[in-house]
Amino acid sequence: MSDDSCSPSTATAAPLSPTAVTLQILSTVLFTFLVYLAIGIPMAVLPGYIHLDLGYSSFIAGLGISVQYFATFVSRANAGRMIDTVGPKATVMRGMLFCTASGVVLFLASLAQTLPFLSLCLLIVSRTLLGLGESLVGTGAIMWGIGRVGTHNTAKMISWNGIATYAALAIGAPLGVILDRSLGFAVIGLSGLALTTIGYLLARSKPAVDVVQGERLSFKLVLRRVFAYGIGLAFGTIGFGSIATFITLYYADHQWGNAAYSLTLFSAAFVGSRLLFANSINRFGGYRVAVVSFITEAIGLLLLWVATVPEVAMLGAALAGFGFALVFPSLGVEAVNLVPPANRGAALAAYSVFLDLALGFTGPLAGLIVGQFGYPQVFLFAAIASLGAVALSLSLYRSAQRAA
């Protein structure tokens, strides 16, 4: 991105040292970490709670999880516009309040366990509020960080935001299982409430960044510009959605233990990939990195498909996480470059819509696949989607070369 895409505060400020840039980024992605820790803690617990404790089908269990992603999807446009008009700090703070409300409602759902339908309805409300908060915090934190360190650090900011996301999920999944077994399901909601309240208080104390001035494109136009890149992101996200939603039930179907550790391995591999290869996008370009990432993810998903022992499944989950790690930033950097500076919050939100859409549809669709063909076929379906993303990324790369 060119220097003229910086906000006024970043364009005129003295350049930051690499260490100072990293510290600024870390202090901003902390908000993402707290929200995704609140998301990760119930991740390995909720499918079993809905399916086994409340007695609903695997389809309903998948749908209950996916409600969060649908809520994030429908609120992305508003999140992008809020960032570009009132600023990312205010956006993050409002998102934290939604997440705090989600924790309160999840706690109420745990109290209604003896009334399955009421408990399920409260869970759906809780997941909806969490999705709204995730949309505002996830996109707002990235743009807040970019406003503090400059747009030339966009790839680094997106990469570290992803590290915070999946580090939180890696910690949250097994932590949620431990909390549920030792203290009961009610503490899951209370933990999310506490984490996001802390996030809100921390966000209040941090400095805001200037809102970039300029012509505001309609969200529909921005969405049209990033559409093809978003489709690639959606294809790659199906693998993560399948693992996040059904890995615990997949393990139970095979009568294996320690399913939460597969989520941890997925997330640990994701973080490792971001740490090791964060600069690869600047060196080789987003398109090339995306192609390699999708191929790696597909190999991991195919291992999950054919696994007959838990060790192979864990290797597959790790490879899928390692490949998926650079999908969002590799195509995202190329997508955000397609719009003027004053619309980059909207562009990032529009691009992220496809992640939400993929996660939202993966749960119920994978639930239907499970009902007809069994759990392993879910991962075959996700692998085919990743290979489709390889073909799309190659097509976008050729188009970009012709345009250049």
TrEMBL record:
Entry's localization field: Cell inner membrane; Cell membrane
InterPro entries, sorted: MFS, MFS_dom, MFS_trans_sf, MFS_Transporters, MFS_YhhS-like
Membrane topology: Multi-pass membrane protein
Chain ranges passing through the membrane: 25-50, 56-74, 95-118, 124-146, 158-177, 183-203, 226-252, 258-277, 289-307, 313-336, 348-371, 377-397
Alphabetized UniProt keyword annotations: Cell inner membrane, Cell membrane, Membrane, Transmembrane, Transmembrane helix, Transport
Primary subcellular site in the record, as a coarse category: membrane
Signal peptide feature range: none
Span of domain Major facilitator superfamily (MFS) profile: 220-404
Matches recorded under HAMAP family: MFS_YhhS
Similarity comment: family membership: Belongs to the major facilitator superfamily. YhhS family.
Name recorded for this polypeptide: Uncharacterized MFS-type transporter PQR62_10220
Organism: Herbaspirillum lusitanum
